[in-house]
Design a protein that fits this description.
Layout: H1 2-34, H2 42-47, E1 62-66, E2 72-75, H3 77-85, E3 89-90, E4 113-121, E5 124-131, E6 139-143, H4 151-161, E7 166-169, H5 181-189, H6 193-210, E8 216-221, H7 223-233, E9 240-244, H8 252-255, E10 262-267, H9 275-287, E11 292-297, H10 314-332
Length: about 325
């Protein structure tokens, strides 16, 4: 009998310990949960009248847009870069603004310039800017962001031409220009990469045929930054490549086709092209002994050098532009 009571006593003692432990864990769990801000799923927020670009993700999640339909998605930060690279997701960027901030940052060079619209690939028309004086200058293929060949890119072509270059700003969207993220998403979704390569290669042929120069380079921002790298990987006549926060390739076998210097401008806070990927890209270039100057700017995000966007960072943009001019001066002249 005494043994039976002892067993029963131990049983209830164990239960009390379990309850105490469980109670303690539950309170701790409640405390942790209460410190995290939770929000309804993106589609429910939209059904409640929230604009897709203003959807709020639960703390610890990153907001992107699905490339196929433009709907928002809240992802783990570790997944964002992979899904952007696969074409499943795209950056969520502020709508384009007509505010002009680049005159004081992206300064003019010493040459007066002139510009015209030229056909260089079928019916595709590009924006050609060059010094007025009759002389031979290095050439640069300029590639627009996901917005298209807009006034900001044309002004950048004028700015660069004033430093002594013949600049052809290509049009990869067949004359279409976006001013909202949704319009840009539709344009980039319908983009044909093979035709785009033909377009850019035709631009280099146009420059070589009409403005023969010893050297030619390329520069692009965002979507155009990735295309600048693609041009380098598919055209062995380039002499310099500039990438502003564009999609990267880190495979040394693929990168081995580059035999000229590369300038890279990237952002520390960019979730689509992370610092880890930039470092891997730089390591691959170094392994291949490809001359490079890779820069990651602290505390700025993707598209920080776009003067028409909310992420514009003037000081960092000015420094990146000075590096761009110096890089082209050293490698093309």
């Amino acid at each position: 009998m005494l043994v039976l009571f002892a067993v029963i006593g131990l049983f209830f003692l164990d239960l009390s310990l379990i309850e105490a432990a469980t109670s303690e864990v539950n309170y701790e769990h409640i405390h942790l949960v209460s410190s995290i801000a939770y929000f309804p799923p993106p589609l429910k927020q939209i059904s409640q009248g929230v604009d897709p670009s203003n959807v709020t993700c639960t703390e610890g999640k990153e907001l992107v847009l699905k490339q196929s339909n433009g709907l928002p998605a809240c992802l783990n930060p570790s997944s964002v870069e992979k899904l952007i690279a696969r074409g499943w997701a795209i950056h969520l960027l502020p709508n384009y603004s007509n505010q002009n901030n680049n005159s004081e940052i992206f300064t003019l060079g010493g040459y007066l310039t002139e510009s015209e619209t030229v056909k260089y690939f079928g019916d595709a028309s590009g924006y050609l800017a060059k010094p007025v004086i009759d002389s031979t200058f290095p050439a640069v293929v300029m590639i627009h962001e996901w917005w298209g060949l807009n006034d900001n890119i044309k002004e950048m072509a004028d700015k660069l031409a004033s430093h002594g270059y013949v600049v052809l700003a290509v049009d990869l969207y067949n004359g279409k220009v976006a001013t909202t993220s949704e319009q840009a998403r539709q344009l980039i979704t319908s983009y044909d990469s093979e035709q785009g390569l033909q377009n850019m290669n035709s631009a280099t042929l146009f420059l070589n045929d009409n403005y023969p120069s010893a050297k030619i380079g390329s520069i692009g921002w965002c979507f155009g930054g990735g295309q600048s790298l693609q041009l380098a990987l598919n055209n062995n006549e380039m002499d310099a490549t500039i990438i502003y926060y564009g999609t990267l390739v880190t495979d040394t076998e693929i990168l081995s086709s580059i035999h000229w210097p590369v300038l890279g401008i990237f952002a520390e806070l960019d979730k689509g092209i992370t610092v880890d990927t930039v470092n891997a890209f730089e390591s691959s270039l170094n392994e291949l002994e490809i001359q490079n100057d890779i820069n990651v700017y602290s505390d700025v995000d993707h598209a920080f050098a776009n003067p028409s966007g909310d992420r514009y960072a003037p000081e960092e943009s000015k420094d990146a532009w000075n590096k761009t001019i110096a890089f082209l001066e050293f490698n093309l002249k």
